[in-house]
Specification:
Elements lengths: L2 E8 L4 H13 L2 E8 L6 H12 L4 E5 L2 H5 L28 H16 L1 E5 L15 H15 L4 E3 L7 H10 L3 H7 L16 H17 L2
Parallel strand pairs: 1-2, 1-4, 2-3, 4-5
Helix pairs in contact: 1-6, 6-8
The structure holds zinc ion (ZN).
Zinc ion (ZN) binds next to helix 8.
Length: 220
Amino acid sequence: MIQQDAALVCFSGGQDSTTCLFWAKKHFSRVEAVCFTYGQKHSLEIEIARTIAGQANVPFHLLDVSLLGQLAPNSLTDPSIRMDEDKPADSYPNTFVPGRNMVFLTFAAVMARNKGIFHLVTGVSEADYSGYPDCRDTFIRSLNVTLNLAMDEQFVLHTPLMNRDKKAVWQLSDELEVFDLVRNQTLTCYNGIPADGCGSCPACKLRKEGLDSYLETKNK
Ligand code: ZN
């Protein structure tokens, strides 16, 4: 049976997908979360995701796609690879996991279809990040068409953060009344430290810049 008012959220327990989880709760009466394990160094993020989903009263599913990390070693899964601090001029930083969002959304769609769910939510954004190709709107629209053709269904891929920079993501979490939860419980840091994180990795810097900028506006 098609659940018109249900959504499946690709959820990692980070700032973006946690904001998306609560965005989905506002827009859909039934929400479930799927978290992917792909050999990431920090298994803590999976436990954090599970905990937040529990607090949000959302069913939590864990899918193992660790083959992804094995096929394409990267600095998020391989401790011997030193993480790029900046984006190299001619390529993507080694935090890029080729095919990740395509694999995640494809598996999420297969899982959702089986549950009669056709709304998928992902926290990708083209306003920030390192310009990963699988975070761009063009890719998401293309995959949406492909998933529909692949399964002869009408999926709708939702990307509430697509045009929001980190400052705007903080603002959205505040509007959704989960600012403190997002700030204190999520894990975005590439070094696996929750909340405000290590403060020096690229993910922490981006998160902190957005936070400082948002707090400045908010406190005016
Ligand atoms: Zn960090």
